[in-house]
Design a protein that fits this description.
heterodimer, A: alpha/beta, 12-stranded mixed beta sheet, B: alpha+beta, 2 domains, 6-stranded antiparallel barrel
Chain lengths: ~575, ~200
């Protein structure tokens, strides 16, 4: 096809507006098909394309490239021996072709040709500036397709640095910056997914750095592997990786779990411990799988709370003696008064069930960071309170688990702390709504290995699923980081606003990431064929349309771009900021 | 513009005609050559020679088996009672303003109209806009030897041009051929094979 007629709709002076093809068919459900007029290697899966049709501009994503031939024999038979080189080339150019499959996503009214009277009239008729709309119709046959220019990308994803726009990466083909709106990002829970080694941690650091720098929300990171706070070394390259605490010394607090813990040979800013009274039955029920608890556990726990009260049950149960017996007047061995069985008999609970629970909970009783209540409240309560107050005040907390990297520690602590935070934020929000108090500070809780907390069995028992489902109204959202999204409860996944996914190999994981999204069939292949590193797909409510980006590198250039001169300030300045 | 006619029209319709010629090997058009037929109203018809037939007559039949001299044979060849007949397919026409149209002629020429061979300038003029859409007249007509006729015609077209001009003409003409025949793989490959022979 000669594109001359339609070329006039473009701006030929702009090399970025070079047409790459024209629409030959398709629809909203079946995607659009574009006949490529450029060599196939110039366009790749995931490319961001613009289709010009009349007064409208359509934006879409290349989801497939298909080789075709006017007759299969043109493709199957090589004619180099039979035809001259010139004729062979001419024949190939007219009978062999590549079709793009384009997932249409947005449309934008751009009006008549700029500079015409019609354009002026159209501008006058507008009540508001045209903005990209979800696609409701299709471009006409032979509408010209071109790769998106920097202006197109900015039109849809925003201008870097403007407002809450944060550059998360660049388009693969033309290297145009792609932004996410951080204020929108924190309004709903979001997820970062990818197989091991796909760069989830680096991407998380980048997003967290953006959130901290932009100050869009307070951030609490459950840092199971001690990666985010202090400087680290990349496991694959061996290169040093700067910690968030290093770059934001005055704004990021590193909390270490348990008194005296060290994180990467650094002393954390505070040590986190819990009072025994902080432990509630739901914290134990959440450990059902980890402790191999039985179905009788909830009844036993309920009886303990009934007997001793919510603040004392853990302490009392811990100090019961399992299996202790004494001889009664008749010389028979009966449970000792301080035994588990004695209490069970008194409380009408099956003694064997109570003893079994006590035995299994010994792993929890022995945790060194759960301490007896201090009447003076000098240690534990203060550290928990300090974290909540810091988050309320706009600071950011990275909770490093130090040597307590077992699932038991992670599940218990993250759920417990989140429950406390949830209670605090609900209270503040209710005060704000009902009594005119200060508006709560938005909070993002970053959770690694999220499937351990949000799987189908556990989701209903943890605070995380409640946050994912309901806490948006209370200014708390989750940032889920996981390599097995298929293990996360569907109901939680469906609530995720922004999804950022690196390469995933498992079909179920891919399906989980795409669940509930339009065009997921078209996006499935793209997700499976991402580069193993530094390529991610942005999806979901938080972004105007799905797009494939080369994620930014977490290096000095990133920090220079984010912080400017701040990023290279010396240690003395950092200490000064800390008040030393 | 060649001033010497090669023959006169015997019969015609709007798609083509037959012409009768003398046997003068030097100026007689070959298979595939372009010819023109000026009309009385200053229009001009263009066509391609797609068949040349030399019919016998009674004398030739006798001479074929007779023992005659070389002069008599030559005299009968040059001064035939039955002319050499050429079949021409019309591929376009030129109006009184000199504009060339690649469409069916509005009306056929009259008997005994003179026919002239086209020189290179006239061939260039007929194809100067780079459009070879008239090739459909050849390719769609099942009664014509389309493969050989297109090849012979393109040879003349390319010979009338040089350098980039010839390349562009080849690209445009073959582009038209491919567009028209891409659903007919055997026919297209025959044409392209034949064209490859002349490149």
């Amino acid at each position: 096809m000669t594109l001359t007629d339609n070329d006039s709709m473009l701006h030929p002076d702009d090399p970025q507006n070079t047409p790459i093809g024209y629409v030959i068919g398709g629809g909203l459900k079946a995607n659009l098909f574009v006949r490529l007029t450029r060599p196939a290697y110039e366009v790749q899966e995931g490319g961001f394309v613009v289709l010009e049709s009349g007064n409208w501009q359509f934006y879409g994503l290349v989801t497939d490239l298909q080789l075709g031939a006017a007759d299969p024999r043109y493709a199957e038979i090589q004619n180099r021996e039979r035809l001259s080189a010139q004729v062979t080339q001419l024949l190939a150019s007219q009978t062999l072709y590549t079709n793009l499959e384009v997932l249409p996503a947005l449309m934008l009214e751009r009006g008549p040709e700029l500079g015409t009277e019609e354009y002026e009239n159209w501008r006058k008729s507008l009540t508001e500036e045209p903005r990209p709309l979800p696609i409701k119709t299709v471009p006409a046959h032979h509408a010209v397709a071109r790769l998106a220019s920097a202006g197109d990308v900015a039109e849809i994803f925003g201008v870097p640095g403007e407002g809450a726009n944060f550059e998360i990466g660049r388009t693969r083909e033309q290297d145009h910056p792609v932004c996410i709106d951080l204020e929108k990002f924190v309004q709903r829970s979001s997820g970062i997914f990818g197989a091991t080694g796909s760069g989830k941690s680096f991407l998380t650091r980048i997003i967290l750095a953006g959130l901290i720098k932009h100050n869009a929300a307070s951030v609490l990171v459950f840092d199971m592997h001690n990666e985010y706070g202090f400087d680290d070394t990349a496991s694959d390259t061996g290169k040093p990786v700067v910690g968030l605490r290093t770059k934001f010394p005055g704004r990021v607090t590193v909390a270490g779990l348990c008194r005296g813990s060290q994180i990467r040979q650094h002393n954390p800013d505070l040590h986190l411990e819990f009072n025994e009274s902080d432990i509630q039955p739901e914290d134990i029920e959440m450990l059902t799988r980890e402790l191999n608890l039985r179905e009788t556990t909830p009844m036993t726990l309920e009886a303990l709370v009934h007997t001793f009260g919510p603040d004392k049950w853990f302490h009392e149960f811990k100090h019961m003696i399992n299996g202790a017996v004494v001889e009664n007047d008749e010389g028979k061995k009966v449970p000792a008064p301080d035994s588990v069985a004695f209490w069970a008999n008194q409380a009408g609970v099956n003694p064997m069930a109570a003893e079994g629970l006590h035995s299994k909970m010994s792993r929890v009783f022995n945790l060194p960071y759960i301490v007896e209540d201090d009447p003076n409240q000098k240690t534990s309560v203060n550290s928990l309170k300090h974290i909540i107050e810091a988050l309320k005040a706009g600071k950011h907390v990275i909770l490093s688990f130090g040597d307590y990297e077992r699932d038991l520690d992670y599940l218990l602590v993250s759920n417990l702390l989140t429950r406390k935070i949830r209670e605090a934020w609900e209270e503040v929000t209710n005060q704000f709504r009902g009594k005119g108090g200060a508006e709560p500070r938005p909070l993002v809780i970053a959770v690694e290995e999220a499937h351990k907390l949000l799987n189908r069995e556990m989701a209903s028992q943890t605070s995380f699923s409640t946050i994912a489902r309901e806490m948006r109204k209370y200014y708390v959202t989750l940032l889920i980081i996981d390599q097995r999204p298929s293990q996360i409860y569907d109901e939680v996944m469906s609530q995720l606003g922004t999804r950022v996914s690196g390469w995933l190999g498992d079909e179920n994981d891919i399906a989980a990431v795409l669940s509930g999204l339009a065009g997921r069939d078209a996006l499935r292949g793209m997700l499976a064929r991402l580069q193993p590193k530094e390529e991610v797909l942005l999806l979901g409510w938080g972004v105007p349309m799905p797009i494939l980006v080369k994620s930014r590198r977490y290096d000095q250039a990133f920090w220079d771009g984010l912080l400017g001169k701040e990023s290279r300030r010396d240690a003395a300045q950092s200490l000064k900021e800390l008040g030393f | 513009m060649s001033p010497i006619p090669i023959g006169r029209l015997l019969r015609a319709n709007t798609t083509g005609c037959d012409i009768g010629c003398k046997v003068t090997q030097g100026s007689t058009p070959s298979f595939g050559d372009m010819v023109r037929i000026p009309l009385t109203n200053h229009n001009q018809i263009y066509g391609l020679v797609y068949d040349i037939h030399i019919d016998d007559d009674g004398l030739v039949n006798q001479l074929a088996t007779a023992d005659v001299s070389r002069e008599i044979i030559e005299d009968n060849r040059q001064n035939r009672n039955v002319p050499v007949e050429m079949s021409v397919v019309f591929i376009g026409w030129e109006d009184t303003h000199g504009k060339v149209h690649h469409t069916r002629v509005p009306y056929p020429p009259l008997t005994l109209d003179e026919i002239f061979p086209c020189d290179e300038e006239e061939v260039r003029k007929f194809t100067q806009d780079g459009s070879f859409g008239y090739l459909r007249i050849i390719l769609r007509n099942l009664e014509l030897p389309a493969v050989d006729l297109v090849t012979a015609h393109l040879r003349q077209v390319l010979a009338a041009r040089s350098g980039i001009d010839a390349d562009q003409a080849l690209e445009a003409s073959l582009g038209e051929v491919i567009a028209m025949l891409k659903d007919d793989y055997p026919q297209l490959m025959d044409v392209l094979s034949a064209v490859s022979e002349i490149l």
